[in-house]
Each structure stands twice: as C-alpha cells, then as structure tokens.
Design goal:
It is found in: Cell membrane. This protein has 305 residues and is mainly α. The chain is built from 13 helices and no strands. Helix 4 packs antiparallel against helix 12.
Length: 305
C-alpha cells in the first residue's frame, strides 16, 4: 500500500504538468506572453520553495560553490524548456507541442551517448524508431493540413525537448548530497534567472500588479511547478526512476485531453493511434532502462568486496 501512495503522487505530478500548455495558451488570449508567464512561474516557485526551506527545521542551506553553480545551470535548462515550450504553443496546437516535447526521451539517450559514452542498445534504438513513427502519426505530418503547420512552432518545441533532456540528464547527476527542498529552490532560482536574462526588456516592460495576472502566475507556479516538484522529490526515490518515468508518460494523454476540453482542439483517429504508439514505446524504453540500471547495480555490488 505504501508503494501505491507514491505511485499516485507521481501520477498526480504528471497530470499537473500535462495541463500547463493548455492553460498557457488560454492565458495568451488575455494578452500575456511566454516570457512573463514562464518568468513569474519560476520566480514565484523559487519564492514558495525558499519560504518552505526557511520555515523548515533544517534552516540554512549549505552548498559548495560547485553544487550551487551546477544547480543554477540545471535550473537554466528547465527555465529554457518552459520558455521555449510556452513560446511554441503560440504557433502550434497544445496537442502537437506536447507530442514534440516527448522527443526528450531519445534526446536524453543521445546526450548520454555523446557526453558520457553510454551507447544505446538495440532495444532502445528500436523503441526510438517507434517513438518517431508515433510522432509522425500524432503530428499528422502526412495529413492534408501539413502545409498549415508552423515550422517556427515545431522548431521551438524541438528545442524545448532538447533542453528538457539536458535538464533530466543534469538533474540526475548533480546535487546528490543536497536535500530535495534546497535543491529545488536553487534550480527554480536558476530557471527564473535564465528566463530573465534572455527576456530582460520584455519582462521589465510588463505589468505584474493586476489581480488577473497575479492569479495566473500563482496558478502556474503552484500547479505547474511547486506541487509537482514536491511530489516527485518525495515519491521518485521510493519507487525508483524507472517506474516513475513510465508513470510520468501520463503527461502526454493528459495534455491532449486537456487541450480538447479547454481549447477545443480536435484529434483524428491516426493521431490518437500515434499517441498510443508513442506511449507504448516510451514506457517500453523506460522499462528496459530500469532493468538495465538494476542489473548494473547488482553486478557492481557483486564485484565490490
């Protein structure tokens, strides 16, 4: 029953993440932009997490210089992800944006191979092929409306997928000795700082004192960042990264369903089949990755004296 609780926590975090693109696109209709929305989301999340850290029993955060810089840079990657992803939905549908964002699964494999020399095995390469097939179907790239697609939006979504992969790889390798609360706080601070630096003129020119904008920003910060971060940090160590990665694929169908309800976006049969193919391929990839990691740990412990 304990594992069930943590499984539900990961699922809830994925569901919350999945709703964000639809609400951001809805907020665009109120005259707001990706820069101010993504910045306020990251900044308020850092404030909320910092307040929680201040009120916690542990008090002060003790980080080495390398840990602090690494976590800030990791936050920069997720900040760029949110900004680019939010930018993409101003050009393409929320459904298409989430489909392209899911390419982070094979981008992360390429990063592990290029940077750390971890060559993907045959089963991983096969699942990448199925992810790409599912993507082509889900994006309806062979449909009649392909000429109406915004390639700017697709490029932005692809870039957000790459930076998301960088964030995932970096987050798994830095700050292992840092508690989840200060780690999340510094990452969100790095996210806000990065978005501010690349959009300084737009952000400084924005108006942030209206009740409407405040409610939007608080909603994005709490539902899109603070609560999922807390849920993942508490639950993922309990059930493992492999199972968690499979559970987090719920973000894809939730985003598509939310886009259908909130934005009235329509999907055809081929697109639905493509999404199912992607979900199956991503789940299979993460399953085999978890088995591979388990075997490596077992062999490592067997060799240790």
């Amino acid at each position: 029953m304990a594992n069930l609780k943590y499984i539900i926590m990961v699922l809830m975090g994925g569901i919350m993440y999945g709703t964000m693109s639809s609400f951001v696109k809805l907020f665009y209709s109120r005259g707001y932009h990706a820069a101010e929305l993504s910045f306020s989301q990251a900044f308020l999340a850092a404030v909320f997490l910092g307040t929680a850290q201040f009120l916690s029993r542990k008090g002060k955060v003790r980080l080495t210089r390398n840990e602090f810089i690494s976590l800030l840079a990791t936050g920069g990657a997720i900040g760029l992800t949110n900004y680019l992803y939010y930018q993409s939905v101003s050009y393409i549908s929320a459904s298409l944006a989430i489909v392209i964002l899911m390419q982070f699964t094979w981008f992360s494999l390429l990063l592990d191979w290029a940077v750390f020399g971890k060559k993907p095995n045959k089963s991983e390469l096969l699942t990448v092929v199925f992810i790409l097939i599912g993507t082509v179907m889900a994006a309806n790239l062979f449909g009649e409306d392909v000429q109406s697609l915004s390639w700017i939006g697709i490029t932005l979504a692809l870039c957000s997928s790459l930076t998301y992969a960088i964030y995932i790889v970096a987050n798994s390798r830095v700050g292992h000795t840092v508690g989840w609360l200060p780690k999340s706080m510094v990452i969100m601070a790095g996210s806000a700082l990065t978005i501010f630096i690349i959009n300084v003129k737009t952000i400084l020119a924005g108006s942030y004192f209206s009740y409407e904008f405040a409610m939007m920003a608080v909603f994005l910060a709490i539902i899109g960042t603070t609560i999922p971060t807390a849920l993942f940090a508490a639950a993922i160590p309990k059930i493992g990264a492999g199972i968690s990665s499979i559970l987090m694929t719920i973000e894809l169908p939730v985003a598509v369903l939310c886009a259908s309800i909130v934005l009235n976006e329509q999907l055809g049969f081929v697109q639905i089949v493509g999404i199912l193919v992607m979900l199956a391929a991503i789940s299979t990839m993460n399953y085999y990755k978890s088995l591979k990691n388990k075997k490596e740990k077992q062999s490592g412990s067997a060799l240790s004296p």
